[in-house]
Amino acid sequence: MSSAARQPVAAWCRRGIGVMAAVVLLGSAACSGDPQATAGEGVDKVTYLTGFGTSGRESYVHTAVTKGFFREADIEVKIEPGQAGPFNDNAVGAGRAQFAAVDASGAFVRFAKTTPAERRVRTVAAVQQRTLLSMVTLADRDIRVPKDLAGKRLGVGPGAAPRVMWPLYAKLAGVGPATFVENKPDALAGLLVAGKVDAIGLFVAGVPQVEAAEAKLAAEQKRPPRQVVKLPYSDYLTDMYGTVLISSSQLLAQDPDLVRRFTGALMKGLAYAVDHPQEAGQILHSMDRKQDPATAARELELMKPFAVPPGGHPYGWMDQARVARSIALLQNLPMPLVTPEELVAFDVMPQ
Hints:
It contains 15 helices and eleven strands. It is an alpha/beta fold.
């Protein structure tokens, strides 16, 4: 049995009230009304961290809870808002969480820069088959192609994947030096529409947040909203995965069946959410009333083309040859050489 020991499930329900310096509990099976919240003996209790905070593109985990996919797998999930890659890596490696979402590029680089003895997490599935990283701007900033970003002020989250991957993206896209303005990720859309930065590093699926912020400002200023322009990193980083699911090396060794069951249930939630974005948006709103269901649905619609695996493979699938190409691409950062088998636990992902 793993560190996520099977035990009687207490009745608990704590609703998240915002993203703070420490993770804040966002929701649980009991909050959703899912019958797993009152399950008895034989249920594994685990903690899952979102990639960052609360957003529509991450609502698939709430969908998996509400639709009973985790209950069917005999798992009870506590969902907490994560704080990007390094924080999530450390939480999973230290056993404070059993699973987390992180950006693949950052996860691969961090893994490769550690010694074998220090490697406490591994990738177990891909949420998105292509990277969602992008630079996002507004039509009046005269930024149409990546080279136009040279010399501009670019808003990024501290240590966030768009900043980490910028040197490689800029090299491949032929972009000259730019100035970076760091701020909290949830403040970036406001900085952009207020004209304090020229573009922001953002996931493609986060564009609706910028559109909502711009629509609000345009209404206040009684003018038409400006068009949002996105410059996806995937145009150049063609072999990079997007968000991936990680688990601890210890849990993989002690209870691989739990990892398989959790991964399978989460991927069922992902497939359902991108196929039913309106319903998934409502589910997220029911868990956190601050989340606009329409915006959440739009994020899932934008994410779907990035999440559907090629060739009819199941959601979450990762290809060893493509992981090897991702590693080769990341050598340009530079990054120490590792093998796909070291990075990814291919034996536990959905088959």
